[in-house]
Amino acid sequence: MSEAFWIGLCGRSGSGKGYVASRFLTWGIPSVDTDAVYRAMTGPSAELSPCMRELCAVFGNRVVCPDGSLDRRAMSEIVFAEDGAHARLTLNRITHRYILAETRRAAGQWEREGAAAVLIDAPLLFESGFDAFCRYTVCVVASEEASLARILRRDGISREEAGRRLAAQMTNEELIRRCDFAVYNELEAEDLEGQIRRIVGAIREKEGMDP
Q1: What's the pLDDT tens digit per position in 102-120?
Q2: Is 190 helix (H, G, I), strand (E, B) or coil?
Q3: In this structure, what is the dihedral angle of CA atoms 125, 129, 135, 140, given to the nearest 10 degrees?
Q4: Residue 160, Cβ neighbours under 10 Å: how many?
Q5: What are the residue ranges of helices labelled H in 12-60?
Q6: pLDDT value, residue 134
């Protein structure tokens, strides 16, 4: 059995990456959600995970809830503060190491089940360095207003806080420049299925796979 190759999927917060990833599955390409991996390793636990122990050592007990999970609001206040750039880099440096190890394990499981390609849903694909492990990269692009609307509906935070979150991320233009393919996903996106079909078709053609 040949080794499954990785397709990196990225995009700004609120771009709709999760839905796009689900549409790739209809073409036989399963995904690993690195956000879900992160939530699992920082979730409630009787014993802190190695990742949580390291975060606690660096940021202090204020980022740990009584149930052993990460206090996400406290962490967000630290890393998205006006002077939070260094803290954000430190958080990413710690967590990306653990996320990559688990992502490799999960992708390996899909490979053993017969997948020829695995989609790696990684919002910080380039910042984490995960792009180095991907044969192709795809970004999901949405306007600022569409992204803000999704964030507000999903996370229940203020518009100002959502704006700060987007301001701390790569721009759509930078993602498009870096990626092999782009999916445009507005609130009323038309031809989303067609965009994904064309991307999958192009990748299959490059790989010499059956259409």
Answers
A1: 999 999 999 999 999 999 9
A2: coil
A3: 10
A4: 8
A5: 17-25, 34-41, 50-59
A6: 97
CA separation (Å) from 128 to 55, 148, 186, 210? 17, 24, 26, 32
User: From CA 88, how far away is CA 97, in angstroms rounded?
Assistant: 14
Q: Residue 18, class by beta-carbon neighbours within 10 Å (0-12 exposed, 13-18 middle, 19+ buried)?
A: middle
Computed from CA positions of residues 76, 79, 81, 82, in that sequence, does the dihedral angle turn out positive or negative? negative
Q: Could you tell me where the beta strands, DSSP code E, fall in the chain?
A: 5-11, 31-33, 117-121, 136-141, 181-184
Superfamily covering domain 5-204: P-loop containing nucleotide triphosphate hydrolases (3.40.50.300)
Share of the chain above pLDDT 90, in %: 75
Q: Where are the domains of the chain?
A: 5-204
Least confident of 27-41, 47-61, 82-96, 104-118: 82-96
SS3 11: strand
